[in-house]
Fold:
Amino acid sequence: MSTVDLALVQLTTPADQKAAFDHARPLVEEAVKGGAQFVLLPECANLVEQRKAHKAGKLAGEGDDVFVTGIQALARELKTPILIGSVIIKAENSEKAANRALLIDAAGEVTARYDKIHLFDADTPDGRSYRESATMRPGDRAVVADTAWGGLGLSICYDVRFAYLYRMLARQNVTMIAVPAAFTVPTGKAHWDVMLRARAIETGAFVLAPAQGGTHEDGRSTWGHSMVIGPWGEIVAELDHDRPAVLRAKLDFAEVERARQALPQLRHDRDLLV
Structure:
Protein backbone atom coordinates (compact mmCIF):
# COMPACT_ATOMS: atom_id res chain seq x y z
CA MET A 1 0.00 0.00 0.00
CA SER A 2 1.40 3.39 -1.01
CA THR A 3 -0.45 5.53 1.54
CA VAL A 4 -1.79 5.20 5.06
CA ASP A 5 -4.05 7.25 7.29
CA LEU A 6 -2.67 6.98 10.80
CA ALA A 7 -3.21 8.53 14.19
CA LEU A 8 -0.89 9.27 17.10
CA VAL A 9 -2.61 9.24 20.48
CA GLN A 10 -1.19 11.62 23.09
CA LEU A 11 -1.87 10.52 26.67
CA THR A 12 -1.52 11.67 30.26
CA THR A 13 -1.23 8.13 31.57
CA PRO A 14 -2.23 7.53 35.21
CA ALA A 15 -0.46 5.32 37.77
CA ASP A 16 -2.62 2.22 37.29
CA GLN A 17 -2.91 -0.14 34.32
CA LYS A 18 -6.73 -0.39 34.38
CA ALA A 19 -7.09 3.38 34.67
CA ALA A 20 -4.54 3.74 31.87
CA PHE A 21 -6.62 1.56 29.57
CA ASP A 22 -9.80 3.47 30.45
CA HIS A 23 -7.92 6.68 29.61
CA ALA A 24 -6.56 5.43 26.27
CA ARG A 25 -9.56 3.51 24.94
CA PRO A 26 -11.85 6.42 23.96
CA LEU A 27 -8.99 8.19 22.21
CA VAL A 28 -8.12 5.06 20.21
CA GLU A 29 -11.79 4.65 19.30
CA GLU A 30 -11.93 8.31 18.25
CA ALA A 31 -8.87 7.80 16.05
CA VAL A 32 -10.34 4.79 14.26
CA LYS A 33 -13.74 6.44 13.89
CA GLY A 34 -11.91 9.31 12.21
CA GLY A 35 -10.47 6.96 9.60
CA ALA A 36 -7.14 5.84 11.07
CA GLN A 37 -5.83 2.59 9.60
CA PHE A 38 -2.99 2.43 12.12
CA VAL A 39 -2.87 3.85 15.66
CA LEU A 40 0.25 4.57 17.73
CA LEU A 41 0.44 5.12 21.50
CA PRO A 42 3.30 6.72 23.49
CA GLU A 43 5.92 5.33 25.84
CA CYS A 44 4.75 4.08 29.27
CA ALA A 45 1.19 3.81 27.94
CA ASN A 46 0.19 1.39 30.70
CA LEU A 47 1.76 3.07 33.72
CA VAL A 48 3.48 6.32 34.69
CA GLU A 49 4.63 5.84 38.26
CA GLN A 50 8.07 6.65 39.68
CA ARG A 51 7.17 6.47 43.39
CA LYS A 52 8.65 3.17 44.55
CA ALA A 53 6.16 2.71 47.38
CA HIS A 54 3.23 3.09 44.96
CA LYS A 55 4.81 1.08 42.16
CA ALA A 56 5.63 -1.99 44.26
CA GLY A 57 3.51 -4.96 43.26
CA LYS A 58 1.88 -3.23 40.29
CA LEU A 59 3.99 -4.68 37.50
CA ALA A 60 2.69 -7.71 35.63
CA GLY A 61 4.08 -9.91 32.88
CA GLU A 62 3.20 -9.09 29.28
CA GLY A 63 0.39 -11.64 29.11
CA ASP A 64 -1.10 -10.60 32.45
CA ASP A 65 -1.02 -6.82 32.11
CA VAL A 66 -4.60 -5.58 31.83
CA PHE A 67 -3.57 -2.70 29.60
CA VAL A 68 -1.86 -5.01 27.12
CA THR A 69 -4.72 -7.50 27.02
CA GLY A 70 -7.21 -4.64 26.80
CA ILE A 71 -5.45 -3.11 23.79
CA GLN A 72 -5.26 -6.53 22.13
CA ALA A 73 -9.01 -6.91 22.50
CA LEU A 74 -9.58 -3.35 21.29
CA ALA A 75 -7.43 -3.90 18.18
CA ARG A 76 -9.44 -7.03 17.44
CA GLU A 77 -12.75 -5.22 18.01
CA LEU A 78 -11.76 -2.25 15.82
CA LYS A 79 -9.94 -4.45 13.26
CA THR A 80 -7.05 -1.99 13.39
CA PRO A 81 -3.34 -2.51 14.16
CA ILE A 82 -2.06 -0.61 17.20
CA LEU A 83 1.50 0.10 18.25
CA ILE A 84 1.78 0.31 22.03
CA GLY A 85 4.76 2.67 22.16
CA SER A 86 5.83 0.94 25.32
CA VAL A 87 4.56 -0.74 28.44
CA ILE A 88 6.40 -1.19 31.72
CA ILE A 89 6.19 -4.89 32.53
CA LYS A 90 8.02 -7.61 34.42
CA ALA A 91 10.98 -8.77 32.34
CA GLU A 92 11.34 -12.46 31.69
CA ASN A 93 14.08 -14.21 33.72
CA SER A 94 15.02 -11.01 35.54
CA GLU A 95 14.24 -9.16 38.74
CA LYS A 96 14.02 -5.95 36.75
CA ALA A 97 11.32 -4.55 34.49
CA ALA A 98 11.29 -4.12 30.71
CA ASN A 99 10.28 -1.00 28.81
CA ARG A 100 8.75 -2.77 25.80
CA ALA A 101 7.10 -1.70 22.56
CA LEU A 102 4.43 -4.07 21.25
CA LEU A 103 2.96 -4.09 17.76
CA ILE A 104 -0.56 -5.53 17.84
CA ASP A 105 -2.16 -6.58 14.55
CA ALA A 106 -5.81 -6.25 13.56
CA ALA A 107 -6.49 -9.73 14.96
CA GLY A 108 -5.19 -8.70 18.38
CA GLU A 109 -1.94 -10.67 18.15
CA VAL A 110 1.50 -9.39 19.14
CA THR A 111 3.61 -9.42 15.95
CA ALA A 112 6.72 -7.54 17.13
CA ARG A 113 8.46 -6.68 20.39
CA TYR A 114 11.24 -4.22 21.13
CA ASP A 115 12.86 -3.58 24.53
CA LYS A 116 14.29 -0.08 24.97
CA ILE A 117 18.05 -0.27 24.45
CA HIS A 118 19.22 3.07 25.88
CA LEU A 119 18.06 3.72 29.44
CA PHE A 120 17.59 7.26 30.71
CA ASP A 121 20.03 7.89 33.56
CA ALA A 122 20.26 11.66 33.89
CA ASP A 123 19.94 14.69 36.14
CA THR A 124 17.78 17.16 34.21
CA PRO A 125 17.90 20.99 34.35
CA ASP A 126 14.72 21.09 36.45
CA GLY A 127 16.57 19.39 39.33
CA ARG A 128 15.06 15.94 38.87
CA SER A 129 17.08 12.74 38.80
CA TYR A 130 16.20 9.75 36.63
CA ARG A 131 17.82 6.30 36.89
CA GLU A 132 15.99 3.89 34.59
CA SER A 133 18.82 1.38 34.83
CA ALA A 134 18.11 0.92 38.55
CA THR A 135 14.86 -0.86 37.77
CA MET A 136 14.93 -1.57 34.01
CA ARG A 137 16.68 -4.26 31.98
CA PRO A 138 17.88 -2.85 28.64
CA GLY A 139 17.18 -4.50 25.32
CA ASP A 140 20.04 -5.71 23.17
CA ARG A 141 18.78 -5.73 19.58
CA ALA A 142 17.26 -3.43 17.00
CA VAL A 143 13.85 -4.45 15.63
CA VAL A 144 12.14 -3.83 12.30
CA ALA A 145 8.46 -4.82 12.33
CA ASP A 146 6.56 -5.84 9.22
CA THR A 147 3.44 -3.81 8.40
CA ALA A 148 1.13 -3.50 5.42
CA TRP A 149 2.97 -0.27 4.57
CA GLY A 150 6.55 -1.51 4.78
CA GLY A 151 9.12 -1.90 7.52
CA LEU A 152 8.55 -0.05 10.79
CA GLY A 153 11.67 0.63 12.84
CA LEU A 154 11.05 0.50 16.57
CA SER A 155 12.67 2.78 19.15
CA ILE A 156 11.67 4.39 22.44
CA CYS A 157 12.25 7.92 23.79
CA TYR A 158 15.91 8.26 24.90
CA ASP A 159 16.95 6.09 21.95
CA VAL A 160 16.40 9.17 19.76
CA ARG A 161 19.74 10.59 20.97
CA PHE A 162 21.69 7.68 19.47
CA ALA A 163 21.82 8.27 15.73
CA TYR A 164 23.61 5.00 14.96
CA LEU A 165 20.50 3.02 15.93
CA TYR A 166 18.43 4.89 13.34
CA ARG A 167 21.12 4.43 10.70
CA MET A 168 20.94 0.68 11.37
CA LEU A 169 17.17 0.79 10.91
CA ALA A 170 17.49 2.87 7.72
CA ARG A 171 19.85 0.29 6.23
CA GLN A 172 16.99 -2.19 6.57
CA ASN A 173 14.96 0.02 4.21
CA VAL A 174 12.30 1.01 6.74
CA THR A 175 9.62 3.42 5.54
CA MET A 176 8.64 4.55 9.06
CA ILE A 177 10.37 4.82 12.43
CA ALA A 178 8.41 5.07 15.67
CA VAL A 179 9.75 7.23 18.50
CA PRO A 180 7.13 6.97 21.27
CA ALA A 181 8.21 9.06 24.24
CA ALA A 182 7.65 10.46 27.70
CA PHE A 183 10.07 13.39 27.39
CA THR A 184 10.69 15.66 30.35
CA VAL A 185 9.59 19.27 29.90
CA PRO A 186 13.10 20.85 29.90
CA THR A 187 14.56 18.38 27.38
CA GLY A 188 11.39 18.38 25.31
CA LYS A 189 11.37 22.15 25.01
CA ALA A 190 15.05 22.20 24.02
CA HIS A 191 15.53 19.11 21.86
CA TRP A 192 12.31 17.26 20.91
CA ASP A 193 11.53 18.61 17.45
CA VAL A 194 15.19 19.13 16.50
CA MET A 195 16.15 15.51 17.12
CA LEU A 196 13.04 14.08 15.49
CA ARG A 197 13.67 16.10 12.34
CA ALA A 198 17.34 15.07 12.34
CA ARG A 199 16.47 11.37 12.57
CA ALA A 200 14.02 11.74 9.66
CA ILE A 201 16.56 13.57 7.49
CA GLU A 202 19.30 11.04 8.27
CA THR A 203 17.14 8.04 7.42
CA GLY A 204 14.85 9.37 4.70
CA ALA A 205 11.92 7.81 6.56
CA PHE A 206 8.76 9.07 8.22
CA VAL A 207 9.27 9.57 11.96
CA LEU A 208 6.19 8.96 14.13
CA ALA A 209 6.45 10.35 17.66
CA PRO A 210 3.41 9.88 19.94
CA ALA A 211 4.10 11.40 23.35
CA GLN A 212 3.02 11.53 26.94
CA GLY A 213 1.99 15.03 28.01
CA GLY A 214 0.87 16.89 31.11
CA THR A 215 1.20 16.35 34.85
CA HIS A 216 0.90 12.74 36.01
CA GLU A 217 -0.27 11.32 39.33
CA ASP A 218 3.31 10.82 40.55
CA GLY A 219 4.06 14.52 40.01
CA ARG A 220 6.07 14.05 36.82
CA SER A 221 5.41 16.48 33.95
CA THR A 222 5.90 15.37 30.35
CA TRP A 223 6.29 17.51 27.24
CA GLY A 224 3.60 16.23 24.86
CA HIS A 225 3.80 17.88 21.41
CA SER A 226 3.34 14.63 19.47
CA MET A 227 4.69 14.94 15.92
CA VAL A 228 4.87 13.30 12.50
CA ILE A 229 7.97 14.19 10.48
CA GLY A 230 8.37 13.57 6.76
CA PRO A 231 11.44 11.96 5.14
CA TRP A 232 12.72 15.37 3.98
CA GLY A 233 12.61 16.61 7.58
CA GLU A 234 9.41 18.61 7.26
CA ILE A 235 6.77 18.64 10.00
CA VAL A 236 3.74 16.82 8.58
CA ALA A 237 1.54 17.15 11.68
CA GLU A 238 2.01 18.23 15.29
CA LEU A 239 0.19 19.02 18.51
CA ASP A 240 1.11 22.34 20.11
CA HIS A 241 0.18 21.29 23.65
CA ASP A 242 0.56 18.60 26.33
CA ARG A 243 -3.08 17.51 26.69
CA PRO A 244 -4.56 14.12 25.70
CA ALA A 245 -5.50 14.28 22.02
CA VAL A 246 -5.50 12.50 18.67
CA LEU A 247 -3.09 13.64 15.95
CA ARG A 248 -3.96 12.49 12.43
CA ALA A 249 -1.73 12.33 9.37
CA LYS A 250 -1.78 10.79 5.91
CA LEU A 251 1.55 9.38 4.72
CA ASP A 252 2.49 8.96 1.07
CA PHE A 253 5.36 6.50 0.89
CA ALA A 254 6.43 7.76 -2.54
CA GLU A 255 7.98 10.59 -0.52
CA VAL A 256 10.43 8.12 1.04
CA GLU A 257 11.72 7.10 -2.38
CA ARG A 258 11.91 10.71 -3.55
CA ALA A 259 13.90 11.77 -0.48
CA ARG A 260 16.34 8.87 -0.81
CA GLN A 261 16.86 9.52 -4.52
CA ALA A 262 17.44 13.23 -3.94
CA LEU A 263 19.97 12.51 -1.19
CA PRO A 264 21.42 9.00 -1.69
CA GLN A 265 23.24 9.18 1.63
CA LEU A 266 22.47 5.61 2.66
CA ARG A 267 24.60 4.41 -0.26
CA HIS A 268 27.52 6.53 0.85
CA ASP A 269 28.11 5.11 4.34
CA ARG A 270 31.70 4.11 5.05
CA ASP A 271 33.23 1.93 7.74
CA LEU A 272 36.02 3.95 9.33
CA LEU A 273 38.90 3.03 11.62
CA VAL A 274 39.25 4.97 14.86
User: Anything to note?
Assistant: The chain has six helices and 16 strands. The radius of gyration is 17 Å. The mean pLDDT is 95. The chain has one domain: 3-266.
